[in-house]
Amino acid sequence: MTERMQIKDFQDGVGASPYTGFAIMRGLDAWSTPGICKPLPMPEIGDSANRNDDITVERAGITRITSKYCIDDKNVFEIQNNGELEIISDGQNFNPNDLVIWKNYLLMAEGNEIHAYGPLGDYPDWTDMDTGAGGEVFLHFHNRIYIGEGENMRSLKEDTTFDPSDSNTFTVTENVLILPDGHRVKEMVEFNNNIYIGTSSVQNTATILVWDSYSPSFFSSLKINEDEVNMMIVSTGKLYIQAGGKGNWYYSNGVSIVLYKEMPNVFGYDGNNDYSIDIRERAVSVKNGVIYFGITASVDTDADNFINRTSYYSGVWALDTYRDTLYMAHIPSRIDIYGIDNVIEVNITDVQWDGDALFVGWYLTETDNTEHTGIDVVYTDGDPYGDDNAYLISPYYQFGTLYSPYMIKAPEVHLTKPIESNEDDPQNIKFYYRTDPTADWIHHATLDTVGKSHFVMNNITNLINAQFKVVLNGNVELLKVLL
User: Fold this and answer.
1) What pLDDT, on the 0 to 100 scale, is given for residue 10?
2) How many whole angstroms separate alpha carbon 92 and alpha carbon 471?
3) 354 vs 366: CA distance, rounded Å
4) Per-residue pLDDT tens over the stretch 412-471
5) Per-residue b or e along 73-84, where b marks 16 or more CB atoms closer than 10 Å to that residue's CB
6) Torsions phi, psi of 12, nearest 5?
7) Neighbours of 238 (CB within 10 A)
8) Diameter of the chain by CA atoms?
9) CA 297, 300, 305, 306 torsion-angle sign
């Protein structure tokens, strides 16, 4: 008897193409119990309806979420417990670049100045610090703040009890490090007790400079054959780097760099520039060895053969550094409200864990160019995804030939537990297939019989090649699909 093909091993995650692994795994937990997958907790809160009515967030969206503070192009906000944003920079006319909390103050860098908000507590206020210049990127390292701007690095240290209004309490040192010509600071992290500086370069060679924070020059450099470093983060004792426009991840032990994980080959631009799927710089966070990062997608609605791909790939992706697997974890909460087919741009502007809550900044653009901006919060104990938002798309399988097509007899779906009746959390599985990886899906079955954990579906005939989509709604756990 021929062994039946199975859709399983969900913990393997998304492959570099649908010929090497799952084409997509969205909104699914495939790692907490290896061998099964189930919907993740869905995002809560959302867009302007959850914010104070007098706040207008700029198109760039919410960025640099840190300890309940965040910025957009012109404002600094405090995130309230109910998810609303309270503007704390009203009337300041800022152009924020980055945030960091230091000495009980929130420091904010813009192009020409550094501003301090605090002391953090009952009556904080803004102070323009006498620093002589601004900055683009902050790093808190060895009780000092390092500030990157263009080709220059400067440092801020405390001399006596820090008071941002009194320059006698702190020292700003200019040009503590000058980058090589043509390189600009993009990101900084602490690793191996040194500062690793990710750069962009006019030579289209992304370079990471390794610096001890006190020597007049960096002592080592790591090069990647990409144009720039977008993200760096430390997890499981390694430095993980996302560089270039195709989304590829690299890792380093501090001495050398190797390619770690290829993103699906849809990333970047298509041949006609009809769509773009790209990485949002610095929108990255890590929890329990899993790196969460933002993916942006947009489409050209005037393009020939327009296909809206934004909902397929844009959202918060996750890279599990323990299991070496990749999957798409979350989508903005408001995609469903505005309509998946109506959203032509999704920009994940920041991703940040705070305790057991994942904060996600985003903005969306609809086909009529209406824009929406907000922050989602994903709680680890939140309600699971529903409304067809959590699903997997299988590899693209070959079954038969042109002269000998194949028939899948009585395909089966196996769950780990029976479906339960729950009006607030409807549970079901929807099964689709298609014979061309660019074709529309054919709905084959909806499985929602309460009390059942094993379903047998009708035959699927005349197959040469096929791909399958399995949608999980509510608190269901998929074990396998037999084909």
Assistant:
1) 94
2) 48
3) 30
4) 999 999 999 877 778 999 999 999 888 889 999 999 999 999 999 999 999 999 999 999
5) ebbbbbbeeebe
6) -75, -20
7) 16
8) 85
9) positive
Q: Rounded CA gap, 72 and 63, in Å? A: 6
- Using DSSP's 3-state secondary structure scheme, residue 88 falls into coil
Q: Name 76's Cβ contacts closer than 8 Å, sequence gap at least 6.
A: 69, 70, 87, 88, 89, 92, 94, 96, 99, 106, 108, 117
Rounded to whole angstroms, how far apart are CA atoms 93 and 361? 22
Domains of the chain by start residue, with CATH? 6-39+391-482 (2.60.120.260), 44-379 (2.130.10.10)
Question: Could you give the CA distance from residue 285 to residue 28 in angstroms, rounded to a whole number?
Answer: 19
257-271: pLDDT as tens digits: 999 988 876 554 444
Confidence class for position 132, pLDDT limits 50, 70, 90? confident
Per-residue pLDDT of 269-282, as tens digits, reads: 444 445 556 676 77
pLDDT for the residue 313: 76
Q: Tell me the backbone φ, ψ of residue 167, rounded to 5 degrees.
A: -70, -10
Looking at residue 11, its amino acid is Q
**DSSP structure string for 379-439:** ETTSPBP-TT--EEE---EE---SSS-EEE-S-EEEESS-----SSS--EEEEEEESSTTS
Quote the distance between the C-alpha of residue 182 and its chain's center.
Answer: 29
35 in Cβ contact with 8 (< 8 Å): yes
User: Given this model, what pLDDT does residue 278 score?
Assistant: 67
Cβ(433)–Cβ(444) under 8 Å? Answer: yes
Contact 233, 286 (CB under 8 A): yes
Q: How many helices (H) and strands (E) does the chain have?
A: 2, 43
Q: How far is CA 101 from CA 118, 126, 272, 432, in A?
A: 10, 14, 44, 49
Is 78:84 a contact under the CB 8 Å cutoff? no
Region label for 35, one of left (φ > 0), alpha (ψ between -120 and 50) or beta (otherwise) = left
Mean residue pLDDT of the chain comes to: 86
